[in-house]
Amino acid sequence: xxxxxxxxxTPTQDAAVPRAITLPSPVGxxxxxxxxxxxxxxxxxxxxxxxxxxxRLGMLFQFPHTEVAPVWPASGLAxxxxxxxxxxxxxxxxxxxxxxxxxxxxxxxxxxAMAAGSTGEYLxxxxxxxxxxxxxxxxxxxxxxxxxxxxxxxxxxxxxxVGTYSLWLSDVAMTKDFPTVWASWWLADxxxxxxxxxxxxxxxxxxxxGRRPAPGRIEGIGLAILTVVTAGLVFLSPTVSPSVLxxxxxxxxxRFEQLGAAGVTVAVASVATYATVHGSGxxxxxxxxxxxxxxxxxxxxYSLTALVLAAAITSRRSSDQRLRARTLELEAKNQELExxxxxxxxxxxxxxxxxxxxxxxxxxxxxxxxxxAGARRLGTVTRNAExxxxxxxxxxxxxxxxxxxxxxxxxxxxxxxxxAAGRLHLDLELRxxxxxxxxxxxxSADPVLLEQVYENLIGNAVKFTRDxxxxxxxxxxxxxxxxxxxxxxxxxxxxxxxxxxxxxxxxALFERLPQHADLPGIGAGLAIVAxxxxxxxxxxxxxxxxxxGAMFRFTVGPPGERP
Length: 563
Hints:
The structure is a single chain. 61% of the residues lie in helices and 6% in strands. The protein is elongated and about 120 Å long. α10 (288-366) packs antiparallel against α11. The protein has 563 residues and is mostly helical. The strands form 2 sheets. The chain has a 5-stranded mixed sheet. A two-stranded antiparallel sheet has the order 1-3. It has helices at residues 34-60, 73-85, 90-102, 108-131, 141-154, 156-169, 178-209, 217-236, 246-277, 288-366, 372-403, 413-423, 425-430, 447-464, 525-535; strands at 409-411, 434-437, 443-445, 472-478, 488-493, 540-544, 550-554. Among the domains are: 1-205, Orthogonal Bundle (Arp2/3 complex 21 kDa subunit ARPC3); 406-563, Heat Shock Protein 90.
C-alpha cells in the first residue's frame, strides 16, 4: 500500500508512498534454455510495468495537499496476482513498489522500507488465503467472507505497521499522528484488496475457465453505462442518496454473478472516491476526516453486498447443476438396472420352465416308483420352481413399469376400482367379502396403471380378511391434506392388520412380515403399487394395528411423470 497518509486536515510534506500491483506470470520450473528463461521473465516484467500506472491511479484518489488516499488499488492487484500465479513472483512486486515510491519523490531508504512492508502484506495475504482454501473465483459465500477477513483486514496490518513506523522514523509523520496514519493506511489497503482484488480475480476466473455470463453482451454494456452514469449523478450531487446504486449491485450479482458484481463495485468505488476527494457528492461535506470514514464504510458495504449476493447466486446455480447432473446419472443407472433386471428375468424363464416341466413329468410318469422321500424332494423342486416363476413374473412386471410410458387422462377412480374388482372375481366368488366402492373425485392418471393399483390393494385386502367371518373392504377417498393437494384415496379392510412399526417395510420388494409368512403371495404387489404411485408424483402409506385391519392410502400428483 502507499503511505500517502498524513494527519487529517493538514497539508503534509512531500512524502509519496505508492503501492505494488501484480498481473499474470507463468508458473513452472526455470529451465536452462534461454527461451524458457525469457518466458519466465514475462510475468515479472508485466508486474513491474503495470504497477506504476496502478500507483498513479491510486494517487488520483488522494485528498488535495495530502498523501491520504481512501483506497489503494495496487494492493488488490498484487494480492490477486500472488494468489493466482504463485508467491514466487514477490521480488517483482518489491522492485515495482520501490521504484514507484522512489520516482514519486520519496527518499530511497523510506521507499525501500515501505516497499518491504507492502510486499510483506501481499505475501501474508496470499499465504493465508491459500491455507484457508479460498477459491480464486470467489464463488462461495465462505470465500468472500474469508477473502475479506484475511486479505482485507488481517494482511494490511503488515504494510500499515511497517509503513507508518518508517514514516515516523523519517520524521514524515509525528507521534501524535501515528494512529491516524496507521488506520488510514490499513483501511486504504484493505479496501483496495476487497474491491480491486476481487475485480482482478473475477476477470481471471472468467478468462481461465472460458465461461461467460449467461446474459447477452448488450445487457452487460447497458449495465456498465447505467452504473457509470448513475454513479456520476449520485456523487456529483450532495442531495442524491448513494443508496440508489444498490439495485445495480443486485442486478449485477444476480445476472452476471462475480464478474458483474466486481465490475460494478470497481466502477462505483472509483467514481465515489474520486468525486469525494475532489469535493463532490454526499461524502464531500466537511474536512478530510469526516469524509474519509463514511466513504470507506460505504465502499465496503457496497462491495460486500454485490460479492456476497453473487456468491449466493453462483452457489445456488452450481447446486442446481450438480443436482440435475446427479438426477440424470441416477436416471441412467435406473434404466440400466431395469434393463438388466428384465434381461436376467427373461433369460431365467427358459431353464426354469425346463426344470418345472421335467420335474412334473417325473412325478407323473415315475411317481409310483419313487420312494416317499424322493417324491417329497421332487415336490419341493416343483414348488420352488413355481415360486421362482412368480418371482420372475413380479420382477418383469416391475421392470415393465419403469419402461412403460404414462398416458395420463381424467379418470374416475371408482370405475377403476370396480374394473379391478371384476378381474378378481375368482377370489371374490370363493369367499365374497362385503366390498363397498364409494364415489370419488376424478384424478389425472394412467387408467391402466390406476386399475393395477386397485387390483393389488383390493387383492391384498381379500387375502388378509380370509379368516374373518364377515370380511369388509371399503374403497373411497377423503379430503385433501393441504392446500394445492389432491384427494387422498384409500382401501380399508378389517383383516389381520400389521404392526405400525413395520409400515414402510410393506412396500419393499419381496418383503413380507414374519407374522404373515403363512399367507399366499411373494411380497411384490405393494411394491408395484408404490412404484406406480411414485411415477404419478403421489405418495402411498399404510395405517393399521394387529387384529384391527389395515388402511392403505395414496395420492395422485399433478400431471407430469417421474422417472
